Amino acid sequence: MQARLLSRETGDHSPDDLSKSVNADLLRSFAPAPQHRFNGEIASQTHLEETKERARSVRAHGAGVSGLALEKFDGRILVSGGSEGSIKIWDLDEAPTPNQRHVFRPVSTIARSTGGKKVNGHSHGITHLAFYPFDPDAFLSSSYDKSLKLWATQRSALTADFHLNATIYSHAMSPIADHLLVSCATQHSNVRLVDLKSGSAVQALVAHGGPVLCTSWSPRHEHILASGHADGKVRIWDIRRAGGVIAQLDQEDSLGVLHRFRHATALDQDWSSMPHFRTSAQAHDEAVNGLQWTDDAKYIVSAGLDRKIRVWDAGTGANTLASFGALIQNRHAKTATMVVTSSGLSNNKEILIWPNDQEILLLDLHDGNVITRLRSPGSTNPVGPRGGELGRNRTTTIVWRGAGGGPGQIGTVMGGGNSVGAIYSAHLDGQIRAWMPQIPGPDDIDETEDIDEDEETRRRKRKAVDNAYRSLMGRQITFTGTSR
């Protein structure tokens, strides 16, 4: 580090180069951060006693956490959704420093709706959460109750409610568009578009490929949308066109549309009359349940239940043939959440953050190399036959806290607010876990150590251990026996 600072002072490295180099080291040093815990259960004397007895009893949602969203402006507000239907809002700036012990409590809770009460919340488990792209004071939620809801964050108040008569697996909004369309991936084969301005489902993008499991808007073209389907296809839509589909990603095409254009030109064929893609083209051999554009819109990343992650050239549709090996786990027929960081974050490389069942992988997006593996506490064999389906601590979703909170980066800043960069993961066991770079600070904290003890209790324990040690070492020891 001193050598890097010297290089910057002498002009050999720019501030951006130094920042990227430091970020590369920080990314490799990510580790569990058990000093930060999320306790969403109602405090009681019995509960406090149980918490002191066993730190792992702390839960954000008792029935399991099924959704997470982090606002991208300050990276401060985290929203979590429970498998039972409740939604909780957390303030990440409650913790003064990354190394300081802190138990987060929800600043607000939206209760599950039940038949006997007039509650605006969801009646079934949360499937997806996402903040409004232009305002941290609004977020969207979807649920197995077949509804999409818009909430005011500060007041935890419902502002709009849409019933689609179909299970909504996930939803997305364009980060740049003037329109207020929400694309919904549902159990039906059509992509549903909901207009927040008019308050109705205004359009259906008609496809015939089974359920839609994921959608993602282009970060450069406000009318371009990608969707992943149960038939293994990734369809690219221009929502202004009557026909809709303008392309399908083809795993067998590593050259792209430009090559086909040049080939047609060389053969003196009429390019305009030729189909620009094969109707039978498939991106994956099984259902596609994950889609993500890179911030610069140059690449599309797709994930399928065939345990493959593919990276596509968004300009040509070509399969870049990036290989991530056999580590990838993806076997649950639901929307898979992945994070792609900006290329400006670390050495001009995008980092793919992928949640396996019981570990989180940080991978180089283009060569597939593993940067680091973050294993959930208690997981001894995350890729073995006993992992995942039977594991109560299985990861359900992740979010990244970078510059401004979201995956998008401004410049080369690693973290936002009081954070040096962090990953938050949601789990079926009800916990929200934090993962952070190792930086100079207090000694590592044992996962089972009581984090709610006051300083006086910890001082008494240290004194008792010290007294026992001194007593043992100060005891006079004599040896008896017959000398020879």
From TrEMBL:
- Which PANTHER family has this protein been placed in? DNA EXCISION REPAIR PROTEIN ERCC-8
Q: Which organism is it from?
A: Metarhizium humberi
Specify the signal sequence span.
none
Alphabetized SMART domains for the sequence? WD40
Q: Which residues are listed as membrane-spanning?
A: none
Q: Which GO terms describe its biological process?
A: proteasome-mediated ubiquitin-dependent protein catabolic process; protein polyubiquitination; transcription-coupled nucleotide-excision repair
Q: What are the start and end residues of each WD repeat?
A: 58-100, 119-161, 205-240, 281-322
Compositional bias per record (Acidic residues), positions renumbered to this chain: 443-455
Name of this protein: DNA excision repair protein ERCC-8
Compositional bias segments (type: Basic and acidic residues): 1-19
